[in-house]
Design a protein that fits this description.
The longest helix has 32 residues. With 295 residues, the protein is mainly α. It contains 16 helices and no strands. The chain has two domains: 73 residues, no CATH class; 208 residues, Orthogonal Bundle (MetI-like fold), CATH 1.10.3720.
């Protein structure tokens, strides 16, 4: 007579090599370690949020307060309503710049990555190696050439200055190429047999499968542009044209001891990124796992 064991019964079986049965007996250790690591990473964020709701006196108290003794939103009111520090305008500028830059960068990276992975042409491999080699260049090396280019185009002190220069990145091309290489060639061959052109096969077959990688690249590009500090400082001059990181530096210099104001500005900058990551984390894990290191 054959006995069929359920999944729960198999996991409950003793394992001599520390397999699933052994790990099942001590889940508390695994979750304890994860809990401690989580606490270490989120503790600064919790304290930052707490300080943003403190009074100016409590914010500079020598005794740490994880919960505000006298909760107030006056720091947010001051930051958002002060005409000398238009945080709302900075926030909108950063949102427009980061969104437009990420969409442009993903569009160019997807097309270039597909061409380098699927379309055979002379010099394809040397071109790919040249693109990857640019990853070794420090970004500050391109500061002056890009500045001169924008000055020639008349884009200085406009949002185009923080949108267009990063619209084509070597990392995005490399990332999408690796993803397309991992997809079976039979998918395109089947579409070709059905009469689809290469462009139609790319749009209808490969592009939907690349959604996890595209979502991952959008998030990474968005974060890079959103957190960029050096480039906006050099290319945006008017107070109402600044992005959030560059503008917050002005807030910090003007209110060096008003930690409640500084933390309120930091929270305004951090919340959109946290929400974006919360909604896309599933695609990030899937996209990074799919874009393996393939030759």
């Amino acid at each position: 007579m054959t006995t069929t064991l359920t999944r729960e019964q198999i996991l409950a079986l003793p394992a001599e090599d520390g397999g699933p049965g052994e790990r099942r007996r001590r889940p508390w250790l695994f979750y304890t370690v994860l809990g401690l690591l989580t606490l270490i990473f989120i503790a600064p964020l919790i304290y930052m949020a707490s300080t943003s709701f403190k009074t100016p006196e409590d914010a500079i108290s020598t005794t740490p307060q994880w919960w505000p003794a006298h909760p107030t939103t006056q720091a947010y009111s001051r930051v958002l309503n002060d005409p000398a520090t238009p945080v709302g305008r900075w926030f909108l500028n950063s949102m427009i710049a980061a969104t437009a830059n990420s969409l442009l960068a993903v569009s160019t990276a997807t097309l270039a990555g597909y061409a380098l992975a699927r379309i055979p042409f002379k010099g394809r491999q040397p071109l790919f190696l040249l693109i990857v080699a640019t990853l070794f260049l420090p970004p500050v090396v391109l500061l002056v050439p890009n500045y001169l280019t924008l000055n020639y185009l008349g884009w200085l002190d406009t949002l185009l200055a923080v949108i267009v220069p990063g619209a084509a990145g070597a990392f995005g091309v490399f990332f999408m190429r690796q993803f397309f290489i991992g997809l079976p060639k039979e998918l395109e061959e089947s579409a070709s047999l059905d009469g689809a052109t290469r462009w139609k096969a790319f749009l209808t077959v490969l592009l939907p499968l690349a959604r996890p990688a595209i979502a991952t690249l959008i998030l990474l590009t968005f974060l890079t542009n959103w957190n960029d500090f050096l480039w906006p400082i050099y290319t945006l001059f008017s107070p109402d044209k600044q992005t959030l990181p560059a503008g917050l530096s002005t807030l910090q210099s003007a209110n060096s001891v008003r930690y409640d104001l500084l933390m309120a500005g930091a929270m305004i900058s951090a919340v959109p990124v946290l929400l974006l990551y919360a909604f896309t984390q599933r695609f990030i894990v899937e996209g990074i796992a799919s874009a393996g290191m393939k030759d």
